[in-house]
Amino acid sequence: MMNNRQLADTFTLIANLSEIKGEVIYVILAYRKASENLMTLGREASEYWKEGKLREIPGVGKAIAEKIDELLTTGKLEFLEKLNQEVPASLADWLQVTGLGPKKIALIWKTLNITALSELESAAKNGQLRDLPGMGTKSEAAILEGISALARRSGRIPLGRAYPLAHEIIATLKRVKGVVAAEPAGSLRRMRSTVGDLDILVASQDSSAVMEAFINLPGVSRVLGKGETKSSIEFSDGVRAQVWVHAPEKFGTALQYATGSKDHNVQLSQIALAKGLSLSEHSFTKANEEIFCATEEKVYETLGLPWIPPELREDHGEVQAAKTNNLPKLIQVKDIKADLQTHSTWSDGKLSMLEMAQAAARRGMKIIAFTDHSVSLGVTGGLSMEDHKKQATEIKKIQKQLGDKILVLHASEVEIKADGTLDYPDEFLATLDLVVASMHTGLRQPREKVTQRTINAIRNPHVDIIGHPTGRLIPDREGADLDMEAVLNAAAETGVALEINAHPSRLDLDDMYARRAKELGIPITINTDSHSEADFDNLFYGVATARRAWLTKDDVINCWSAKKLLNWLEKRG
Ligand code: DGT
Ligand code: CA
Ligand code: ZN
Fold first, then answer.
1. Is there an atom of ligand 1 within 6 Å of 195 CB?
2. If you measure from the C-alpha of residue 259 to the centroid of ligand 1, how many angstroms do you get, rounded to a whole number?
3. Residue 192 CA: which ligand 1 atom is closest?
4. Which three-class secondary structure state does DSSP give residue 23?
């Protein structure tokens, strides 16, 4: 049965091929919207399908519901097969080449009768493109450059890479004369786990000074565009960044616009229209009057709404919630008082337990759990049950040194083995303060098997937390093909906590599943999985993911008082 990603990919492919075919724009946009919504649904479309409720998925109308139905029933889609006969699927890859739009692609394909990206590259190298109508040596060279840039640029940029880079750029731009403010925007400010490009917004009366500084940043390999309000660049590693410059009195409107998401902006435009206002990147206009907003608060206020936190701006119900004053009071970093997954030199961590506990205490933690790996993960120096006895003695010793600064819990990150059993017997698990169960191996098992494995761990009465539930690694490895609805239902039944692992290469659970987990009343835990002192600083990535999932501090066990948390652990056994 196709999962949401596969369905979403199918609709993106349909959108791309339709675009090359020359289909009308609103049809293409409908496919793209369906694809985007499927990716962020948080619940398998097949579940809606079983309930006969496909049309309840946002952006899914009759035509798309019929296609999903056919895909789920037969695994195939006659419409796409026909489309493929008209427009070869490999042409969709060409759309990724900068400087190549759907019209040019159709022209090149039909004139030269080539369909593979490699053929396009040879044609450009052999000078076959320059003589086509509307093209020349310049556009031919741009296509060649676009193809090699594509090879360097491997899809979306992990937030863990984008965030620090954007803040370096912002620091540089803040030093430019005349700059009053510089802030991240786009998906970066919304803290998506991956971003397509970096958007940065600058407030200044002197745009040209900012643009000069921007295109001359170290590591820039190409300038993709340079204008009065917007410029974009590409770094030699393929990362792209875009800067928007606006006068300080327009900063609020510009920041709101550039933060998006596009769908959230569309919602706001509609509210504006209903009030007789027109909202642009620059301002509101009403007849001949122009309203400038220096702050985002004023933008939302003009629309009669409270300010909406950027992490919620995905058109996932936040505008409706704002209208009815039902926005959640989102969790913040300072609410987190416990780190329930960390590693020390007892397995693969870099620091001793004492050093780690002190580092956590310096960051305001009141509880730290050491979850060194279990025995079967040999590469990480996994602990035998004998080793645990020694570790327990050591914990008693350091607890004395630490006093009441921070409470140390003796825990373990227990491997959920490929056969579905846990790495230690139940009698032993019962002796630990806390048990995290996770998978690091056998992630590519078939859906049924890997799902059952996870559910076995969820059903074990000694397991308190499922660590990084899908096992995804951004950007290299997709998570296990879990039947998430089954996993979430099992978790809801047993009351086990599901982790949002804060490491930016994990962010697992991701926001959509965490939001679904909250709906089902499952406790969430946010942990850094620290292996070194610096890793503790990743906490805000996990909190951002939780905020994207609409979580409040009550939803997250790390925010509970020590008493409540210890009681909860006690009761679980
Ligand atoms: P990304 O870069 O793919 O991760 O996603 P975003 O959300 O950063 O999108 P991007 O970089 O294409 O554009 C940045 C922001 O600009 C976006 O969040 C909202 C705004 N924006 C872009 N295109 C449109 C549009 O067609 N209409 C409206 N209203 N806003 C747009
Ligand atoms: Ca962006
Ligand atoms: Zn792990």
1. yes
2. 7
3. 4
4. coil
Q: How many residues does the chain have?
A: 573
* Residue ranges covered by each domain of the chain: 4-152, 157-246, 251-323, 333-572
Q: CATH number of the domain at 251-323, out of 3.40.50.720, 1.10.645.10, 3.40.50.11930, 3.30.210.10?
A: 3.30.210.10
HSE toward the beta carbon, residue 432, CA cutoff 13 A: 28
Ligand 1 centroid distance, CA of 264 (Å):
10
Q: What is the dihedral of CA 560, 562, 567, 569, to 10 degrees?
A: 80
> Ligand 2 centroid vs 312 CA: distance in angstroms?
16
29 lines ligand 1 (CB under 6 A): no
Of all atoms in ligand 1, which is nearest to the CA of residue 190? 7
From the candidate CATH numbers 3.20.20.140, 3.40.1000.10, 3.40.50.360, 3.90.700.10, the one assigned to the domain spanning 333-572? 3.20.20.140
Q: Please give the chain's pLDDT, 573 residues, in tens.
A: 888 888 999 999 999 999 999 999 889 989 998 998 898 888 899 999 999 999 999 889 999 999 999 999 999 999 999 999 999 999 998 988 887 888 999 999 999 999 988 899 999 999 999 999 999 999 999 898 888 877 766 678 999 999 999 999 999 999 999 999 999 999 999 999 999 999 999 999 999 999 999 999 998 988 889 999 999 999 878 899 999 999 999 999 999 999 999 999 999 999 999 999 999 999 999 988 999 999 999 999 999 999 999 999 999 999 999 999 999 999 999 999 999 999 999 999 999 999 999 999 999 999 999 999 998 877 677 999 999 999 999 999 999 999 999 999 999 999 999 999 999 999 999 999 999 999 999 999 999 999 999 999 999 999 999 999 999 999 878 899 999 999 999 999 999 999 999 999 999 999 999 999 999 999 999 999 999 999 999 999 999 999 999 999 999 999 999 999 999 999 987
Please tell me what DSSP assigns to residue 306.
Answer: -
- pTM score, whole prediction: 0.83
Euclidean distance between CA atoms 429 and 427, whole angstroms? 6
Protein fold of 4-152 = DNA polymerase; domain 1 (1.10.150)
Q: Tell which one of 156, 261, 267, 278 to mutate to probe ligand 1, the residue whose CB is within 8 A of the most ligand atoms.
A: 261
Ligand 1: does its nearest atom lie under 6 Å from the Cβ of 262? yes
Name, in order, each residue with C-beta under 8 angstroms of 120's C-beta and a sequence gap of 6 or more: 94, 97, 108, 114, 143, 147
Q: How far is the CA of 186 from the centre of ligand 2 (A)?
A: 5
Q: Which stretches within 126-245 are classed as H helix?
A: 137-152, 159-174, 186-189, 207-215
Q: 313 alpha carbon to ligand 1 midpoint, in Å?
A: 12
The CATH code of the domain at 157-246 is 3.30.460.10
First-to-last alpha carbon distance for the chain, in angstroms, is: 37
Does the beta carbon of 184 lie inside 6 Å of ligand 1? no
DSSP string, 450-506: HHHHHHHHHH-TT--EE-STT--BTTTBPPP---HHHHHHHHHHHT-EEEEE-STTT
Q: Is the CB of 201 under 6 A from ligand 1?
A: no
